[in-house]
Design goal:
GO terms for molecular function: methyltransferase activity. By secondary structure, the protein is mainly alpha-helical. The chain is built from six helices and four strands, in the order H-E-H-H-E-H-E-E-H-H. Strands 1-2 form a two-stranded parallel sheet. It has a two-stranded antiparallel sheet with strand order 3-4.
Length: 114
């Protein structure tokens, strides 16, 4: 059973995530706020967990929690894949946390208007 409007919400999340530049990250909450749904960070997390089914692909590894922790890393099927993908883009990660989080943070509200 699908919750009414969930698919549309997920697609709106994916549209934003596809715009995150390589080597940058954003948070679940920042995405939710940019959609006018500030209290929906958890729903953004659900969307990221299902992102592997989306087409075109969604760079879900670029979405972290509000303090830069790789809280969704287990959704990648490996405890290290999310970190590897970020590091391949030049993002430094130590102990499952983005180093210089503010410097690599991308705020969708400043860049796009949906």
């Amino acid at each position: 059973m699908e919750i009414k409007g969930t698919a549309n919400f997920f697609e709106r999340v994916y549209e934003i995530v596809r715009q995150i530049p390589e080597g940058r990250v954003t948070s679940y909450g920042a995405i939710a706020r940019s959609l006018g749904a500030a209290g929906s960070s958890r729903m953004v997390g659900y969307a990221m967990r299902a992102a592997h089914r989306a087409n075109p692909p969604v760079p879900a590894h670029r979405v972290v929690n509000r303090i830069g922790v790789l809280s969704g890393k287990m959704a990648f099927g490996s405890s290290t894949l999310m970190q590897q993908l970020l590091e391949n883009e030049g993002v430094e990660v130590v102990d499952d946390r983005i180093v210089n989080f503010r410097a690599v943070f991308w705020d969708p509200q400043e860049v796009i208007s949906l």
